[in-house]
Amino acid sequence: MSKKIMFVVAILIVASLVLTACTPKPTEAPKIKVCQVTDTGGIDDKSFNATAWKGVQDAMGKYGVEGSYLESQEIADYEKNINTFLEQKCDLIISVGFFLSDATKASAEANADQKFSIVDVSYDPVITNVLGQVFDTDGAAFLAGYVAAGVTKTGTVGTFGGFAIPTVTIFMDGFTRGVLYYNEKHNTDVKVIGWDINDPDKGLFSNTFDDADKGKELGISLLDEGADIIMPVAGPVGLGTAAAVKERGNAYIIGVDSDWYLTSPDYASIVLTSVMKNMDVTVMEAVKMVVEGTFKGGTTVGTLANGGVGLAPFHDLDSLVPAELKTELEQVKADILAGTVKTRP
After folding, report:
1. Per-residue pLDDT tens for 209-265?
2. What is the rounded distance in angstroms from the CA atom of residue 67 to the CA atom of residue 49?
């Protein structure tokens, strides 16, 4: 090859390298940011904050979104944490729990272009940039009450709530009506202590979602009154009740929100079942809407029919539930779905 040709080739190679270096590389689209604000129970509350966060994590795996959370230590943190995520330009802000309803509403109305989804709350009238996630937990709690009435040896079962708010008392209503329905079908007189659907003012409440000592105190009180199955509807407070039940023995716990057998393995031996709110499913659906560009305000409802709520397996205590009672339970569920059994007035 002549020197002239070699020179030309060299020039062409250099020119190609220069052009390659100067050509802008295609940029990747920024990841969608999903940001969760917890209630004061914290991200690892073994309850609704943790279950909602699982939904975010599942969406991170399936849709490649970026997820982050801020924990609220006190009520004043709700607005502060939401504002932090606004500054971070999150594509979707998920607030968890009834107590964040005012802060979420105010922020959504002041920032019409920001997408929000809130767990356990719906707004009427609808806020166009907020998707509420609510759950007909009374259906699953009704089944829990029915099975509790069929399993109790003392003829007394108990329940208490964290606060006297609708997202808590709906569990207690369903549970109580399930017990009453069992009594009606079997001509029995199983008592529910801690809640009276005809006189809510007599209800038993811890007035906290994070003081496990209070849960232990209330658990001991219900055990002393003869309850051998207790359903605490108070987030981590209920773990204090579980501790009391495990120490006392000859009694069982019904978990709420998640399957306590899985989320609280220290108490697996006393967990009869759990009334599950599958918030991970509804959170992931909200993220999917953002990813697909179909997000809009309104309400999504988790029910027995769509799997948004349900009763957890009996796991290690399966033998405690007679086969006939399991068959009845399936029929009761079918009747609820058919509308022939009402779980609320």
Report:
1. 989 999 999 999 999 999 999 999 998 999 999 999 999 999 999 999 999 999 999
2. 14
Alpha carbon of 210 to those of 7, 97, 198, 243, 263: distances in Å?
78, 14, 28, 14, 16
CA-nearest of 208, 248, 211, 207 to 230 is: 248
**262 burial type by CB count under 10 A (0-12 exposed, 13-18 middle, 19+ buried):** middle
CB proximity list for 157: less than 8 A, separation 6 or greater: 145, 148, 149, 179, 190, 191, 192, 193, 227, 228, 229, 230, 231
Give the orientation angle of helix 212-224 with respect to helix 237-248, to 10 degrees.
40
| Planar angle of CA 51, 57, 62, nearest 5 degrees | 125
Residue 28 has pLDDT above 80, yes or no: no
Provide the pairing of β-strand 271-277 with 309-311. Answer: antiparallel
Q: Is the pLDDT of residue 94 over 70?
A: yes
The enclosing H or E element of 53 equals helix 48-63
CA distance 255 to 251: 13
| One-letter-per-residue 3-state SS of 85-151 | HHHCCCCEEEEECHHHHHHHHHHHHHCCCCEEEEECCCCCCCCCCEEEEEECHHHHHHHHHHHHHHH
What is the CA angle 339-159-273, rounded to 5? 65
280-314 confidence digits (pLDDT tens): 989 999 999 999 999 999 999 999 998 899 999 99
> pLDDT tier at 47 (50, 70, 90 boundaries)?
confident
Instruction: State the Cα angle at 167 between 56 and 105, rounded to 5°.
Output: 65
**Predicted TM-score (pTM) of this structure:** 0.82
Please report, for residues 37, 131, 263, the alpha-carbon distance to residue 65 in angstroms, rounded to integers and kept in the order given.
17, 18, 25
